[in-house]
Amino acid sequence: MHDIKYIRQNPEAFDAGLAKRGLPPVSAHLLKLDEEKRKLQTAIQGWQSEKNQMAKEIGMAKGKGDQARVDELMLKQSVSVSGVKEFETNLVKIEESLKNLLETLPNLPADDVPVGPEETANIILRAHGKKPEFTFKPKEHFELGEKLGLMDFDGAAKLSGARFVVLKGALARMERALGDFFLDHNTKEFGYTEIAPPFLVRDNAVFGTGQLPKFGEDLFKTTNGYWLIPTAEVPLTNLVADSILDEEKLPIRMTAYTPCFRSEAGAAGKDTRGMIRQHQFSKVELVSIVHPDKSKEEHERMIGCAESLMQRLGLHYQVVLLSSEAGFCNTKTYDIEVWLPGQNMFREISSCSNCGDFQARRMKARFKGKNAKETQFVHTLNGSGLAIGRTMVAILENYQNADGSIAVPEALRPYMGGLDVIR
């Protein structure tokens, strides 16, 4: 959510930020609504002052027994009440229009974010490791998983339809092992606190992190009004909603291993086979709540934590700075893209974003210094540390052998009971 005061003071800069996202200027319309709102508020406040003054005069007239004056003032007051009700009705309508428009506008990109569509403007910042070499044509993960008898898409379709999978045996264990592996490093080494949050949330939670009102079709909703979380970012970030935190408690770093649910609206025809794009998948999420002065530093720290996990698993990857048109809530986003030899391409496995105070304003999440008179909005950041299904995809494709077996990365073997090869 944007601060109307900032727009009032920086209309050209605000429109320039929207232009980087390919959107038309809107500050003039916002400021017109804002001006009308403030005029009505001033009129209503004036009426309230006048009402208080008339109440005093009525009291004085009654004290003097001047009934004619009392009747005159009462008539004047009733006419005034009738007029102010119209003002109040108009104020509610204008406030709603202003609020609705502000809720649908994305965050402004940071100054160092490249401008343009993702397909052409994203910048590759660095790469780590090398592409594995094979003496055979590498297979895609679903071919490998099905041949092993450990990945069942047909069985899942009988239960739930398309974009689901049943994992069995060693692959089911690998999903659990990856979650434990990520959590252990995130908590013991990187200083995140493990959280076990609810998987069902209310409207205010998905509004706070920016999924509502614009992206409701991307989510699943129960018949009694709960939303299934699309990522643990939603419950973790909202733990500080409607709060005033002590500055000394910042930063707050949280991690969670949860299922995630996405409708994949608009994804018809994309990644229809395999585990890349599913309605249900597991992910370990990282969330940071920080002082505004520390969010850029925290962003670099978060992407470093995610990269460290990739390096421990021996996976070749590249870090990409996403363009100005990526991500509704984000002011700046880094993606980690892992090399998939079966697809012969890089695919996103982690996305780490700095949202600035955008989500905090929606959630009313603030902090206050020890001697400060006023509160400030916190900055929020979130990232994947890591997406478990896509990490499994990467392991299957990068560690495959000619006979269809899969070598288990050395760092993961203690979490797999010492298993070194899946046959």
Task: Outline the structure in words.
The protein is α+β, with helices and mostly antiparallel strands and 423 residues long. It contains 13 helices and 18 strands. The protein has 2 domains: 4-104, Helix Hairpins (Orthogonal Bundle), CATH 1.10.287; 118-422, BirA Bifunctional Protein, domain 2. The strands form 5 sheets. It has an 8-stranded mixed beta sheet with strand order 1-11-12-13-16-10-9-4. It has a 3-stranded antiparallel beta sheet with strand order 5-7-6. It has a 3-stranded mixed beta sheet with strand order 8-14-15. The longest helix has 38 residues, at 27-64. It starts with a helix and ends with a strand.
Short summary:
With 423 residues, this protein is an alpha+beta fold. It is built from 13 helices and 18 strands. The strands form five sheets. It has an eight-stranded mixed beta sheet with strand order 1-11-12-13-16-10-9-4.
Write the layout of secondary structure elements.
Elements lengths: L3 H6 L1 H10 L6 H38 L2 H38 L13 H4 L1 E6 L12 H8 L2 E2 H8 L5 E2 L1 H21 L3 E2 L5 E2 L1 H6 L11 E2 L5 E2 L4 H5 L5 E4 L5 E10 L18 E11 L4 H18 L4 E5 L10 E9 L4 E10 L3 H6 L1 E4 L7 E2 L1 E9 H11 L7 E2 L13 E2 L1
Parallel strand pairs: 4-9, 8-14
Antiparallel strand pairs: 1-11, 2-3, 5-7, 6-7, 9-10, 10-16, 11-12, 12-13, 13-16, 14-15, 17-18
